[in-house]
Amino acid sequence: KLTGADxxxxxxxxxxxxxxxxxxxxxxxxxxxxxIKATVDVAIVFGTLPxxxxxxxxxTVTKTNxxxxxxxxxxxxxxxxxxxxxxxxxxxxxxxxSNYTRTFAILGGVDANxxxxxxxxxxxxxxxxxxxxxxTYHVNIxxxxxxxxxLNITKTTKxxxxxTVTKTNLDGGFHITTAANISTLEKTxxxxxITTNKDGKENEVSFVIMGGNIKGRFLPESGNGRxxxxxxxxxxxxxxxxxxxxKVKAFTVENNNLLGAxxxxxxTVTKNPxxxxxxxxxxxxxxxxxxxxxxxxxxxxxxxxxxxxxxxxxxxxVGGADAKRFxxxxxxxxxxxxxxxxxxxxxxxxxxxxxxxxxxxxxEGSLPExxxxxxxxTVTKTNxxxxxDDDGGFHITTANVSTPEQINKVITLATNKGGASFxxVGGADxxxxxxxxxxxxxxxxFFNSRRDNPAxxxxIKATRMDSNSSLLxxxxxxxxxxxxxxxxxxTDVSAPENRNKVITLAVNKEIPGxxxxxxxFEIVRxxDANxxxxxxxxxxxxxPAFNDRTDAxxxxxIKATFAENSxxxxxxxxxxKTLTVTIINPNTNDDSSDDEEATSEGGDEDFVVxxxxxxxxxxxxxxxxxxxxxxxxxxKVGKTLMGRLSYIRHQ
Length: 651
Description:
- The structure is a single chain.
- The chain is mainly beta.
- 3% of the residues lie in helices and 46% in strands.
- It has seven domains: 7-60, no CATH class; 78-166, Cadherins (Immunoglobulin-like, Sandwich), CATH 2.60.40.60; 181-270, Immunoglobulin-like (Sandwich); 286-380, Cadherins (Immunoglobulin-like, Sandwich), CATH 2.60.40; 401-483, Cadherins (Immunoglobulin-like), CATH 2.60.40.60; 486-589, Sandwich (Immunoglobulin-like); 604-651.
- The chain has one helix and 42 strands.
């Protein structure tokens, strides 16, 4: 506890005492005092003896001379809670009217990579309190003032600004507990669980992406009591920033109150070292269902080399937070002992050491090589019958979903006990949803329509009769998260063997017929890029025989560029997606493929086309004798579609 005449002007977190900035007051002594007590327990024979000491600390506020006729940056040092971005406004003591142009730049500093600058808004990127012992970060700022009028003045000044990160008290309230800083090797996908201090409680926790320099690198996934981000694999970029920041917001309902918590997560992509002579343990982290032993095979980067045959390799457990849950037998077989799932702590870690010695030279020369690695085992929740609560009750099992902006999202509703009747019974955003049978449709909207909370909620009720003719009822709030930016919405397709397949590429943005807005597609790479050609938005796949490849699947990566050149601020957005084409097995007697255009080498096929509002149905007669059958089928399909999709006309 802080005491003293000015205790209210200080805060204390651990051993970090912060004085809250005050202005200099002429005629006052401008001194502020606080009394600090320190306590330490000294071990003695029969227990511990507490020792205490006190000291009064005085802070004197001095006058800053901004009236010396020189240009100064007047922005003060600041503090921010851990894991929270801090935006700092840069200000000057003079030349602030419209006759002058003021520009700011980051010159460097010990922690310059922790800051970004836009205009006069300096942003400190969120970090954890424990990330650095003194929890302070420094950046050098340069300000330049120049006149655009006849005055012809140019002045510069510099200042080092310090940000102090303070400890967040996580007692009570609602908080995201996922680590703020995560690293991953280049070309490696990273799964990031989004956890909170309310996980495992009565109500579900959902989350949305709020912003950051995500560049399409993050994909949100949620459902069945699990929330996570998938960081898409990317290359390490020499001489550039390899840090990707994303701001997420989590929501839950407690006592009928909506709770929210934000956090910025930073993923740093690290260079994957070449497979040089250095010894490394290459076993990856694993997961296992609860109450199930997991046997993990330990390997090194030299396990599959000829040289490895002339070596003695020894693994052992050398520590780790959960070492007691692991045993090591039969040389390289590490066993994780079965345990129950715990929502707040379901990851267990152990430190492994490997020693490797060559014996083909009689153990002459250098000492054994040694390498260390911390392995993590994540225990997952057992899901019986799709019911995350495992209580045998009646539940709606449909998970929360996300959708790109400007795209309708159709969600198929389901329960853990099979078919049911569904109705919309409430929810803060029920007017954005419509229901037809078990298909719930979220109406397309813009991300900016609700940037601060792009998660839309609807309450669904499911009813059904059980085997005893008793009525079962259950309700669930479903959340649809609208994603910002450009997305390629073309889905994976299938194709008959030995025929061309034409795939129409599309994005979630509406493209008006004006020359100032352009949408371009290009093939950027992919395992099978040489089997694809692209003209405008028509991607053609040259289908080989079904037996040419074991899995009969072919992939290509497509990049879309949306450029808007009107106005004073041109805007360009890009998106990438890997599309997969699967060759249909000719032995399944299935002559159909997905509802995309298909072209044949022969060119003798007949097409029957009929349109229903915005839906086009195409039936293709690939044999002469099947034309009438195709027309009959088309008529039946058309009537079914009219009934199932009639609600589209009213959107």
